[in-house]
Give the backbone structure.
Amino acid sequence: MMPAEDERSRDLPAGHSWIEVDYRFPPGADGARQAQMLAVGQTAGSWDARHSHREKELRSHLGEVRSLALQEDGGTVATIAFPRGNLDGSMGALLTMIFGKYSLGGVARILALRLPADYGLQPRFGLPGLRQRLDVHGRPLIMAIFKPALGLDAAGHAEILAQAAMAGLDIIKDDEILPDLAEAPVLERWRACAPIIEARRDRSGRDLLYAVNLSGDARSLQEQARRLVAEGANALLLNVLTYGFAVLEALVRDPEVAVPIFAHPAFAGALCGAPEHGLAYGVVLGTLMAHAGADAVLYPAHYGSLPFSAADETAIVAALRARAVAPVPSAGVHPGTLAQILGDYGCEVILNAGTGIMDHPDGIGPGVLAFFEAWERWQQGESLRLEAVPPGPLHRALEKWGGG
Amino acid sequence: MMPAEDERSRDLPAGHSWIEVDYRFPPGADGARQAQMLAVGQTAGSWDARHSHREKELRSHLGEVRSLALQEDGGTVATIAFPRGNLDGSMGALLTMIFGKYSLGGVARILALRLPADYGLQPRFGLPGLRQRLDVHGRPLIMAIFKPALGLDAAGHAEILAQAAMAGLDIIKDDEILPDLAEAPVLERWRACAPIIEARRDRSGRDLLYAVNLSGDARSLQEQARRLVAEGANALLLNVLTYGFAVLEALVRDPEVAVPIFAHPAFAGALCGAPEHGLAYGVVLGTLMAHAGADAVLYPAHYGSLPFSAADETAIVAALRARAVAPVPSAGVHPGTLAQILGDYGCEVILNAGTGIMDHPDGIGPGVLAFFEAWERWQQGESLRLEAVPPGPLHRALEKWGGG
């Protein structure tokens, strides 16, 4: 029997000299032949007799098919081991090796990726670091999103933040679709919001993180991150899959950008959505994000507004938690989903609500308060059913969105 | 009737204020509803009554479903127009808008993308610039690949290049799977090869471009590119899809990296390979590459060693040529495929052969000469069939690989 995906993707011991990948080939493909093509074609390349004098050097770089398992539906799952020495430690080189040219010809899906624990980067903060910055322990962190973001200027961002900050919010992030536009330049957004964060800290002693969305080319984006952090920005948001893992890695390595980085999953479906192609969500949003240094990773909760599978969510969370990266189940999160999320995750989670806060019938402040009210009831074992909840923000939220 | 894909992906006039995308939804999906979700969800986001006071600002950012066409198989093709003003001009923001969050939930495939001609970057060299640098006109450019690359040190690269240079090769590139390894550091590879290129220029007056493979994180990769160019490197290779379009854009904008950039398609199949998900090859390897500033783009020739479709190849070439980017049909190219490629492309093409040069039975020099022999016969209308070709490099190549 195949182990569950979250088991299959566990890190290998630090110093391990192989990288292991599980590929699935669909029914009808010659899995054994395809696996051999991958192991050889993505490493030593051709094996012409003319290269026999170089056999020793080539052999040290050669991939190996470690196992082949025929599936019930006629597909094949192959485990291939690649020498770690073929790589420079970057995600770009890794993806080029394990799927690069092969992806243009063969039909295969990467189900799992096992990297040595010391391959790539560690998150600099992770969930423990976020808790330390916020000085919030023993409860889930509550996170909101500026929405609708397009058409909202810097002052509009500040107005929203003022309401959310007053209600005790922990983290807010830009909408991922808002780049550095002339009508709401990213630096102005931060400058308008910074005094509100400062005032909250002065008043309550509690920090509030604002993950500012980065955009541009790889260089201008990093310069933007540096300017933001130099002006006090305390968190960043990156659409890792549309900008590149290499951009995330550069930010994580930059001592001038010493703030937590939230990774957004936009575009992951282009890589992960098809059943027999691309890569499993657990690999892209779990293993790769965790080894590229993200501090927190967003992904759809399987009971949210996007049709996401529980197995994918489980695989993502296992890979993130193995490296202390904060899991951020998202999309369709509202106070009525809190019990279900905490049932799955316990408290070590960030609850990220966009419309589930912004569109609360009584406004943004009550939108945040409804989450805290739900958390307090849950913690004390009280029911979250509408009829059991007294009038107030949570009651109004449950009326609108259901759940509980 | 739908226009052919290469027609559908034509650039819009410069200054055009919309970006148009054709999506296909599979049979069984409610195409009209999905299109609406895309147009609204990827722009204005939610349309809650609470935001009515912001309606004017939101409306200027709203996407519009421009057409819906039911396909014979029950699928739907929808054209959606997105305001250009939602973007900062980067490919990262573009991909986030047109497919970002939606890709996590809905099943759709992007068939075509029409960008204003002045969106993004122009190639700085393109095929005309490559010809000018090489001073080669009126014939296809001949390009080789260092293979097998892993296990080959800097001196080994130089040995191969010496043979190829003597035979008159125009361009050589690193294997895309060779990053900056301690056993063959990228700077040492260039330093070992530079004197051979210089000697060829002194001897024949003709330059030879060596596209050096970049790797690392976004910042170290760009520093590597700058160091290489400072030491005289005259071309670069980037795995655009595993490092990110943002990395390509940063290189193209960098005045310190004023050399042609070759874009490798490794990993494109993870985005483009599935029938109903992701993006068409013409969008990724054509439109996006051409608007991100690549000078030359590699992709599988449909009669090569990878099972690639002629329609995909046609769409890629149309998008590249619209911006003077050099098309580089690759994978399984050998002298026996020359007539077919030139029949399709004419002379305005780069013929890129890996094993088709390196594994020539008589060695690398004859591997290059076989291409020139084939070109001369083709130009003079002489047969390329084995029995018509006199003994020599081309005859030996046709014996080994067939074709003609």
